[in-house]
Every structure is written in structure tokens, then in C-alpha cells.
Amino acid sequence: MVTRIHVGGDRPYDVLVGRDLGGELPGLIDGAARVAVLYAAPLRERAERIAGGLGQRVTPIEVPDAERGKTVEVAARCWDELGAAGFTRTDVVVGVGGGAVTDLAGFVAASWLRGVRWVPVSTSLLGMVDASVGGKTGVNIAAGKNLVGAFHPPAGVLCDLDALDTLPADDLTAGLAEVIKCGFIADPRILELVEEQRPENLPELVERAIRVKAEVVSFDLKESGLREILNYGHTLGHAIEKREKYTWKHGHAISVGLIFAAELSRLSGRLDDATARRHRAVLEMTGLPTAYPPEAWNDLLGAMRVDKKARADTLRFVVLDGLAKPGILTGPDEDMLREAYAEVAR
Ligand SMILES: NC(=O)c1ccc[n+]([C@@H]2O[C@H](COP(=O)([O-])OP(=O)(O)OC[C@H]3O[C@@H](n4cnc5c(N)ncnc54)[C@H](O)[C@@H]3O)[C@@H](O)[C@H]2O)c1
Ligand SMILES: [Zn+2]
User: Fold this and answer.
1) Which of 215-219, 320-324, 339-343 has the lowest mean pLDDT?
2) What number is the average pLDDT over the span 222-231?
3) Residue 194 — very low, low, confident or very high, per pLDDT cuts 50/70/90?
4) Ligand 1 probe mutation, 124, 137, 223, most atoms within 8 A of CB
5) Mutation probe of ligand 1 site: the residue of 103, 132, 172 with most atoms within 8 A of C-beta
6) What angle do CA 79, 83, 24 make, to 5 degrees?
7) Is any ligand 1 atom within 6 A of the Cβ of residue 65?
């Protein structure tokens, strides 16, 4: 059974969720004579299987794993390979892997001949529920993560749930932080499903989280307004990632950030105690981190002030006015921020 989740906007596409989705790819790359398949070593076998099922001339491109592959140098090598294979406007780039490989593949596709079709085959939980939905592609540079990129919606997205069987446990847990975020900002049923702690709930969690992101980005392709709610928990989360020099998994930092954002919502009189407490309970039960050192506060505050999401000099936070009722808190005073941080400082 395949679930199709529609993503609207000026270049609509579907996200397909199911098992054994290899047969869906040919339909998405119809009319292409050549296909480049980008992957990193952990997904080599899956990529070879996918490539083997295509009728087109395939250019396999193995790239360094994870963030090491998300660089301008690797992208340049991919462009050279496309050039050598004679890639034209009607050819297609496929990225098989987690968010790092699909971000790279999307960026390579966005810039080749100013944009060719591409398809992410997402293999990590974070990739499925976040990275491959919404059309953001890009690479990292020395000055920071994701600073160079393009909005380039895919032709379609394949989320093969089979892939999650081999995903390292730590990556599965990290991906759950984004799923739980979707539960708090938009779909409380997600929280119940996580709280049940049944592995067989995972497919429904993936689908529900994708629906949340799909709905938001359908209305807001270029991150003008509504899309900001997806940053719930991310202002402090980004600051933690930066302080840890990106050695923490994104989802782990977001987990701490969610508890902070909930406490900030509560302290500003917008969120009830029980819903704020539920953040810690549900995140802890999945094994996500919920604490960060007290002495880090000044670093974190400084980092939040330069976060690209802060506008002008005023700090902005996505907060909750209740379960599934996201809102914006602008310019909270430093005392309140420090008090909210006390909730995670230990
Ligand atoms: N474009 C967006 O909107 C967006 C949104 C969120 C995150 N991202 C990006 O996504 C990246 C993080 O994605 P991620 O968490 O998937 O990390 P990742 O791509 O680095 O994957 C984590 C690790 O898991 C391995 N892996 C992936 N799937 C596997 C599988 N099925 N079996 C075994 N191993 C597997 C990868 O090879 C890697 O070693 C970051 O670069 C982030 O910036 C992008
Ligand atoms: Zn995130």
C-alpha cells in the first residue's frame, strides 16, 4: 500500500510513503534519457538496486557520507560527472540517502542547466519528514551550514519505510524530535502515537509528520510567514548545534529547544502547565536529550541573536498558545529567557 501526500505550490508534487517503492521511480522520471544516482557508502546497495531497475542510462555517483558530502567541492564533482555523461535539460538527478545526500542532490539538480528534475529517495526518518519535503536544497560552506542553496521542488519524493530498518537507532531517535514537534504545532494525534511506544506506529507517524510539513509548505513555498511555525524549538536548538560545532545531531538539539520553547510559552502566559510538561515527558520517553549545561547560557543567547531567523535586533520565538496553536513571541525580556532556560539547565 502506498500513501500519496500532495504538496501544493507553484510546482506541486507528491510524497509517496510505503514499502518497496522502487516501482514508483520510473513514472517520476519519464522522458529522461539519463539518470544520475547520488548516494553515500551506507546506501550503496539500495542505490544499486534502484539504479538496476531503471531503463535509462545511469550515472552512479558515490559521494562522502553525511555532512562531508554536502559541500561545494562535492557538488562540483557531481556537475563534472553530469557534464561527462552529457546531461541535458530533460535528464534527472536521484538522491538516495538521508537529508545530507538529498540536499546535495537537490542542489546539484537546481544548478545544473539552471534546474533539472530531481527525486529524493529518502532513507532516514529526518529525511522523510523534513529534508525532502518543501523544496529547500543546499550545501554547507565554511561560514555556516546550508548557507548556499536554492528552492527547487522535486518531481516527487519516495519514502521507503523498509529503509528505516537499517537506520542507526540514534538517527531514528533524532528524527523523532521533528515528528514530536509536528505533534505539538499541528497534530496532537502524533503525540498519542509516540506515547503508546509501539514500533508499529512508526509508519503512521511518518505519514502524519509529512502531512504537517506538506500542508505548511504548500501555502508558503518561500518561507514568508506560516512556514516559520516549523521552527518551533529551533531558535535555541540552532544555538546548541552551533555551540557544539555541529557534533550534536540536529534532532537532539531540537529536543532541548522544544522544552525551552514550551517553557517560554508557559512563562509568557500563553501555554497551560500540563501541555508544557507533556513536552518533557514525551521527549524523555523516546530517549531524546532534555538538558544542557547551565554555564552555556551566555553563548546560547549570543548565538540566538545572530540566528538567521531573528529579524533585525529583536528575538522571535515560535511559541504555543495551546496544543496545536502556534504563535509568535517577539522580543521577550532576558529575564524570562533565562528563566525558561533554567528548565533545561542541568
Ligand atoms: N532541505 C531541508 O528542508 C532540510 C530539513 C531538515 C534537515 N535538512 C538537512 O538534512 C541533513 C540531516 O539529515 P539526516 O538526519 O538524514 O542525516 P544524514 O543524511 O547525515 O544521515 C545520517 C546517517 O545515516 C545514514 N543513513 C541514512 N539512511 C540510512 C539507512 N536507511 N540505513 C543506514 N544508514 C542510513 C547516512 O548515511 C548517515 O551516515 C542535514 O544536512 C540538514 O541540514 C534539510
Ligand atoms: Zn529541524
Assistant:
1) 215-219
2) 80
3) very high
4) 124
5) 103
6) 75
7) yes
Calpha distance 84→89 (Å, rounded): 14
Instruction: Give the chain's domains with CATH numbers.
Output: 2-166 (3.40.50.1970), 221-345 (1.20.1090.10)
- Is residue 122 lining ligand 1, measured as CB closer than 6 Å? no
* Catalytic positions: 114, 136, 178, 213, 223, 227, 231, 234, 238, 250
The predicted pLDDT at position 225 comes to 74
What distance in angstroms lies between residue 126's CA and the mean position of ligand 2's atoms? 8
